[in-house]
Amino acid sequence: MAISEDAPAIKAGKGPALAAIEFRDASGGLVPSVSFQRPSKPVLRASLELGEEIEGGLLILRPAPGVTAGFEVEGSFETSLTVADEGPHLDLIDWKHYNSDWVSLTSTDGRRFRIATISEADRRRFPATSPAEIVAAVSKRLAGQEAVTRERWVALARQCEGPNHGPCGIALSALRFRVYAKSPDGRRLLHVVEVAIPMGC
Question: What's the pLDDT tens digit per position in 7-17?
Fold first, then answer.
């Protein structure tokens, strides 16, 4: 089910259905950089800070006062290609991606949902890509940059025989969640939450 960024979120009385969407790390600590108070937009975006993680943690839905609906949450992950030069790296986050299927998150109470930990094998998933495509993508990504910078990264890209070879690698770049409200007539999509993940660190 698609959701438009301009569509209104479901309402409960005069306010949103949810008072908050919170993320907790695996040890139970709140991750404030990607938590939302009184979310009103249908598409919510935030980025994890360096050192923060939500894999293996919880997504917690706090209903607004008077809301008794049950909830469901589905999760998906995205990978992107990065080119590394020892410490520095060039992330192609606006190029090709692998996007996993949507999977239901488990919950015992319809409020607290367990976030899966992505396996190492899944973190390396990526569409079939030729060396020439990688070089072209790096060159396009650096269009307008100084020639010395562009040539440095293009030279590194030419060493890649594929997405997971040489200076090139695949890494997790985003986690996404679809939040639904349940009703006797089915379910309605409330929010899509996109959490960007720092790559190469």
Answer: 344 443 334 68
At 81 the three-state DSSP class reads strand
φ, ψ dihedrals at 187, nearest 5°? -145, 155
Would you give the DSSP letter of residue 136?
A: H
Rounded distance between C-alpha atoms, residue 182 and residue 196, angstroms = 27
* Domains located in the chain, CATH noted: 11-122+172-196 (2.60.40)
Report the run of H or E that residue 139 belongs to, with start and end.
helix 131-141
Residues 6+ apart with CB under 8 A from 135: 154, 157, 158
State the pairing for strand pair 186-196/43-47: parallel
3-state SS, residue 196: strand
pLDDT tens for 56-67 read 999 999 999 988
H or E segment to which residue 21 belongs: strand 18-24
Residues 6+ apart with CB under 8 A from 13: 64, 66
β-pair partners for 72: 180
Q: What is the pTM of this model?
A: 0.86
Task: Say how far apart CA 176 and CA 97 lie, in whole Å.
Answer: 13
